[in-house]
Amino acid sequence: MKWSEEAWGANAPVYEAVINLPFIKELMTGELAQEKFHFYLQQDAHYLAEYGKILAAIAGKLDRKEWREAFLKFASDTVSVEQALHQFYLKENKHKATEPSPTCALYTGHLYQQLAGASIEEALAAVLPCFWVYQKVGDHILAHQSQTNNPYQAWINTYGGEDFALAVNKAIAICDAAAADTTPARRKQMTRAFGLAFKMEWMFWNSAWNLEQWPV
Known about the structure:
Elements (H helix, E strand, L loop, with lengths): L2 H8 L1 H8 L2 H8 L4 H28 L3 H25 L12 H16 L2 H25 L8 H7 L2 H19 L3 H26 L7
Helix pairs in contact: 1-10, 2-10, 3-7, 4-5, 4-6, 4-7, 4-10, 5-9, 6-7, 6-10, 7-8, 7-9, 7-10
């Protein structure tokens, strides 16, 4: 069994929890309050600013030329597409000052921890859920939505379907190849880093639903 299959299987209950989040259910029907969607996008902008740096830093640590090129492309293309969505949806609120929420700070901190203090294999595993979970959620919404004129259709179309899946499949293949060349103990550490990031995907959407603020 490939590492990615093991890692996803270990986190299948978390994915079920993700697609059952009220945020995702109302995103699918188009009933999600704009305030919550805008909160999510503003936090996603904070997240992506760091995620792009992390992807580029991973590229600098990779020995294989094709892997380096892939991660540099992820850092530019994926982030630019998502930032275009932010500009589209937040055009009236783009100058509103925000700060990273506790969940956003936790998630980016986890990724930086893997990048700085763990192996390159663990860093690869930690960034994978952001690709893979979004693709799965996008495909799930496309397969189950029945409403037309969904105000969030541009977001849904970005992550569902074949175009985004190409990048996701490449990222999965790189992780699988890295896992195949390392030790069983390191594979276990990869799964742990992947699982923590997977849980933080759930936390990120849930924090947007709750309009999460710092308690003090």
